[in-house]
Write a structure and sequence with these properties.
Blueprint: H1 52-65, H2 86-92, H3 95-98, H4 110-127, E1 131-133, H5 139-156, E2 163-167, H6 173-180, E3 184-188, H7 198-204, E4 209-214, H8 227-236, E5 240-245, E6 264-267, E7 287-289, E8 301-304, E9 309-312, H9 329-365, E10 381-384, H10 386-392, H11 396-404, E11 412-413, E12 422-425, H12 433-452, H13 454-458, H14 471-476
Parallel strand pairs: 2-3, 2-4, 4-5, 5-6
Antiparallel strand pairs: 1-7, 6-7, 8-9, 10-12, 11-12
Helix pairs in contact: 2-9, 4-9, 5-6, 9-12
């Protein structure tokens, strides 16, 4: 399928320019070998020659071909693709933040240190934690940091524990982080209510258990009703309990992980606290711990002595640095602005609205798609396209592609793996009732198309710049380089 917008090379004509650089006004002599002759070009790079107006229009058109949360509804389950207030972006661009250098003397960056200190206080309060490190720069990076803290804790106690227990509904990053951290992964099953099966958990508890990694609510969008008992069982075996904060958007102000049995918590500032999410970053995954684990946190932490803010390095059993400097500072600035704007009551309302939106959609759509867990959900829920597959060979992928024709980004599909033809929907708290009703209308229409015109779905999308692609070939044999016709 040909892309509507030509490649930038197709605009190129010899002699066209988008710039006019001044003549070189420094001596050339002595500069020829600064890099070494092997790194110098024999001839100029074959870059496209285009006028500035064509260059600008080309990239603006490309940007308009992308879908994003500022363009339309983006109900991507477990990713909290919600509206990001633009004032937070403006705040992060203030020169007092954006022009700082991380090696400046502490007395010259008191405002930045105060912001990190205050942000930590808020995250401590939200999670019922003793201290929080801002170093991790992504959710998975937070997971790895938390696992290192847990391992250091066990080593300090003279124990060598390597088993990490992970539910079958978990994020894929959980087992990946555990493996990278040098641990072995043991899976536990979900029960008929979508929570951790206590018998399955009991069967894998032994003296080698390092921790249980759990998302609550989990990736099925369900709050584990046995959370206190799950944590108690792991603690009785000598292990710790790790909280994957990917779904904290559902519990702010309602349930605090530190009060439900968790020892280590990571937050996704780029999800829960409305800093831009997607496109590869930047992210931020601060890690908080209960009092007993504070000595193992990465250094430095930010402290306050009543007069000035300073960086604290003297943690006796610190795992060291997990990142250069102090994490993705400007992402922390955006999250701080969001928290201050919302306040405690606002964050509570975020969770209430996110849960209300998800339950509203679930009830509206349960008659048209299979609902594997017909119970009150949290911020997201899981539908199944197994009915459509069974009756008309229409798969979740076909439903997702058809949504693109309606200007709606598809939900997460085929995850969690324990649900056949899975469609995981997270509407977030920022969408209007009209948007939610439009999504319902489109999903109902697609369900009816699956019955009467299944080929329409199997050939979708029909209205996008690029049609149905061979995704396996694109992933395994990507063609990312343009060549002139005489180079083919």
């Amino acid at each position: 399928m040909k892309i509507v917008e030509p490649l930038i090379f197709e605009y190129s004509k010899p002699g066209r320019r988008a710039h006019d650089l001044p003549e070189l006004d420094v001596p050339r002599k002595g500069t020829e070998n600064l890099l070494g002759s092997e790194w110098l070009r024999d001839k100029p790079a074959e870059l496209p020659e285009v006028a500035k107006v064509d260059l600008v229009r080309h990239f603006v058109k490309l940007s308009q071909m992308n879908h994003g949360v500022d363009v339309g509804f983006y109900p991507l389950g477990s990713c909290t693709m919600k509206y990001n207030p633009k004032i937070n972006e403006n705040v992060s661009r203030l020169s007092g933040f954006s022009d700082l250098h991380p090696y400046q003397p502490e007395e010259t960056v008191q405002g930045a240190l105060e912001l990190m200190y205050r942000l930590e206080q808020y995250l401590k309060e939200i999670g019922a934690l003793a201290r929080v490190s801002m170093q991790p720069v992504a959710g998975a990076h937070g997971e790895l940091t938390g696992l290192f803290i847990i391992q250091a804790y066990h080593r300090k106690r003279g124990e060598h524990r390597t088993k990490v227990i992970i539910p079958d509904s978990a994020h894929g990053t959980n087992p990946a982080s555990a493996t990278i951290g040098g641990c072995s992964v043991v899976e536990v099953k979900s029960d008929e209510r979508g929570g951790v099966d206590l018998e399955s958990l009991e069967s894998v508890l032994d003296d080698d258990v390092s921790c249980l990694m759990l998302t609550n609510p989990n990736t099925l969008g369900l709050f584990d009703e046995n959370m206190h008992r799950v944590a108690e069982m792991v603690h009785e075996a000598g292990g710790l309990v790790y909280y994957d904060g990917a779904n904290a958007n559902a519990i702010m102000g309602v349930a605090r992980p530190g009060e439900t049995g968790f020892d280590v918590v990571h937050y996704n500032l780029h999800k829960t606290f409305a800093t831009p999410h997607g496109g590869g970053g930047p992210g931020s995954g601060p890690v908080g711990v209960v009092e007993e684990l504070v000595p193992f946190l990465p250094v430095p932490l930010v402290d306050y002595d009543g007069e000035k803010y300073f960086l604290k390095y003297d943690l006796p059993h610190s795992i060291g640095r997990m990142r250069s400097f102090y994490g993705n500072f400007l992402v922390a600035v955006k999250a701080y602005a969001y928290i201050r704007t919302m306040g405690g009551e606002g964050l509570l309302q975020v969770s209430k609205d996110a849960v209300l939106s998800a339950n509203y959609l679930m009830k509206k759509l349960k008659d048209y798609y299979d609902l594997p867990f017909d119970r009150f959900c949290m911020h997201e829920f899981v539908l199944s396209g197994s009915r459509q597959k069974r009756q008309n060979d229409v798969r979740a992928l076909d439903i997702a592609k058809r949504l693109l024709d309606h200007g709606i980004h598809p939900p997460t599909i085929y995850f969690p793996l324990i649900v056949d033809e899975c469609l995981m929907v997270e509407p977030t708290e920022t969408e209007s009732l009209e948007t939610l009703d439009e999504f319902v209308r489109v999903m109902v229409e697609i369900a009816r198309e699956a019955e009467k015109e299944p080929e329409v779905l199997k050939e979708a999308p029909h209205r996008t710049p690029v049609g149905r692609l061979d995704e396996a070939t694109a992933a395994r044999k990507p063609n990312l380089r343009w060549k002139r016709e005489d180079q083919e």
